[in-house]
Known about the structure:
By secondary structure, the protein is an alpha/beta fold. It has helices at 28-43, 64-69, 74-95, 128-136, 138-147, 153-159, 171-183, 189-201, 205-220, 223-239, and strands at 4-9, 12-17, 48-53, 99-101, 106-108, 112-113, 151-152, 164-166. Helix 1 (28-43) runs parallel beside helix 3 (74-95), helix 4 crosses helix 5 (138-147) and helix 8 (189-201) packs antiparallel against helix 9 (205-220). The chain starts with a strand and ends with a helix.
Amino acid sequence: MAGIDLSWTGGLARLRLAEPGNRNAFNLAFCRAFAQKALDVAAASPAAILIEAEGDAFSVGGDIAEFLAERARIERHVLELASLFHLGIARLHGTGAPILVAVNAIAARSAKLVAAYTSSGLTPDGGGTWFLPRLVGWQKAFEILALNPVLSAEEAQHLGLVTRVVEDADFPEAVEALAQSVAAMPSGALVALKRLMRQGADSGLDAALDAEAGSIARQAAHPATLERLDAFMARSRKSR
């Protein structure tokens, strides 16, 4: 559908940007499809979400050619596009499931990251002004978004934008292994972990401790957790 495919491997939702000929540029058709696919993912309560891309560029961002083709109504066009894109992001974010981006959670050593909005006279979208300061701090986020430095994979990892850097040849297998590992985690545990960390970022210690107590209690009572705890105790008895 319009440059983005959705498939499933068990509880793992796979969203693939699939317009390599256009370097996976975000045009109106893509953003409309992305919002719909995100709704489909959210309705299925995934264990994890993997976002990957075909071609030599994950995405070049907004489709500038389409922007200019809509010059007569460019403000309305870009607002509609960005609003649909943001709706998709909010839907995926709202699932609470871990989201792995094959260039973000894990990057090939040759990967390069650049914001590039302001160099074109634009301002960021996609939640960049919300997520980035929380990852790297306000000052560094402003530098990245304002001055558009080209970051290597290693630099992005040092800043906390990338979790792991692997050799290019190992990239597909490393992404798959990480995605399957996350999707195989006990039901609800990672969703609950993300919820706790989001809440903890904006609350005091007492509130965080209360939230943790309630969460670990709920997870302990989950049938999948009890099954794993039983298996752990069985292995422990055998090893004695």
